[in-house]
Amino acid sequence: MDNLTQVKDYQYSGEKIFPEAQDFLPINGTDYVEFYVGNAKQAAHYYKTAFGFQSLAYAGLETGLRDRTSYVLQQGKIRLVLTTSFDPESEVSHHVRKHGDGVKVIALWVDDARKAFEETTKRGAEPYLEPTVIKDEHGEIVKSGIYTYGETVHIFIERKNYKGTFLPGFEKWESDYNPGHLGFKYIDHMVGNVELGTMNKWANFYNSVMGFANLITFDDKDISTQYTALMSKVMTNGNGRIKFPINEPAAGLKKSQIEEYLDFYRGAGCQHVAIATEDIVHSVGEMRKRGVEFLHVPGEYYDTVKERVGIIEEDLEVLKKLGIMVDRDEEGYLLQIFTKPVEDRPTLFYEIIQRKGAKSFGKGNFKALFESIEAEQARRGTL
User: Fold this and answer.
1) 3-state secondary structure (DSSP) of residue 8
2) pLDDT tens by residue, 99-137
3) DSSP 8-class letter at 63
4) Where are the alpha helices (DSSP H) in 77-214?
5) Band (324; pLDDT cuts 50, 70, 90)
6) What distance in Å separates the CA atoms of residue 289 and residue 278, rounded to the nearest whole number?
7) Helix residue spans in the chain (DSSP H)
8) How far apart are CA 72 and CA 40, in angstroms?
């Protein structure tokens, strides 16, 4: 079995990899991620052009929806929903005014949305959406939802009795403009930034309310530079398909990236989405051609890669040219790179990651990564 197959099995097999997780839901995977945005049509064009997402489904005035428009994009197992409201007093408009474009819904695919709601709310989750059945000619879905950090919510989606393109109320989105995909496979993890002193609260939420286990903890000695620091706990469900690192700021000489995010996002929220690819060199090369900007990695970083990481299959000079970082754990190695923020506010960004067996999060890259982020903060005047 090759490394890529191992990574795929780790992500998608039904095996309970982390026995510490109670897994009383359970969760099959990420169903979709919904962004509330100021202009969904333009946002959809950006994600198609720059990230290679493909048109999937649409809901709006033409489908009888009077208060909003949503475009759905897909690549591999990843579905993005981009939603804009027509009502300036709506929840969507309020979210955009306060936070800018950002993640509102992290939807989780479950076998039983009613049970998921019952199990989480009886353990203390704040209800967001009571179990609701939605039907059309293609069948029915059941969805329910709970609040998590900030104004972010989890929607539980049960779709075993549905055969349509996406969800009831959406129609297939046909488009003549479809730039090629970039080989993205699935969401590897999604990182939440929370206020000082609340990381343990939200880690405990995922443990006690959703049955997750603490995969790994990083303290301010692990994630720090001369100027800034943060702490993080990575929470995972039992099959490893859902991983949520939770970050909070730590004391430092200057303002950390977490504090900057919290200031500009106006509270806790999803800081970045990590997208898994089967060929990071191809994916990043194409993204750069399409105008995506990445954090700069100093050239001297690559001087120690061979002694720190050992033998890798990729050409180190190519990785250096593209700015792709490498790290190794006892299971193998990984390659990763981070975009600059994709909004005008220094909030949401993306990580592109390829796992060659490694199940960690690039601890050996933290110092170089955070120094790169600090350089961008200094340019913005927010360090």
Assistant:
1) helix
2) 999 999 999 999 999 999 999 999 999 999 999 999 999
3) G
4) 91-99, 113-121, 199-208
5) very high
6) 19
7) 3-12, 40-51, 91-99, 113-121, 199-208, 257-265, 280-289, 305-309, 316-322, 366-380
8) 10
